[in-house]
Amino acid sequence: MLAGDIFGLPIPAAGPVFAAALVLHVACGLTAVVAGALAATANKRPGRHPQAGRVYLWALAGIFTTATIMTTIRWHEDAHLFAIAVVAFGLGLYGYRARRRHRRGWPLHHAIGMGGSYIALLTGFYVDNGPFLPVWNRLPHTTYWLLPTIVGTPLIWLALHRFTRRERRTKARDHQDKVTSATR
Known about the structure:
The protein is about 80% helix and about 5% strand.
């Protein structure tokens, strides 16, 4: 049963708790999409990148919490969306923890965790809303599940490739500086 729709997206009639959780879920989702994009496109240094990343992780926590509430109310309809929320939040926490621990190879783990969580975030949105969106509603259902990964994975790979290339140049320059200063 539907309570109505907003911008063509159906709103289930599942009671006031569900409705309140849905409002918060949408707000957290929009915040996560914007903050994640800002973090991904920012220079990887203190400032915009970590600030946007923290906002992104808190928004993911909100998405996970509200998805848990909504799934509890409508398990049969939303169980698959709950699974996506678990994956998104889990990957986000993994990426955050990799950054905080600074173990060898942490940038790789950080990028995979945060990038993977962003892919899962978009997957959840398109799986739930794709059938009601213009253009997307003409695509096969598997597209909603696969397209975010097909687009996002090469972008993560490119970012990692660019980062590791820069790291190698910096290490080579530092090594050359040490050799040069030792021979003086």
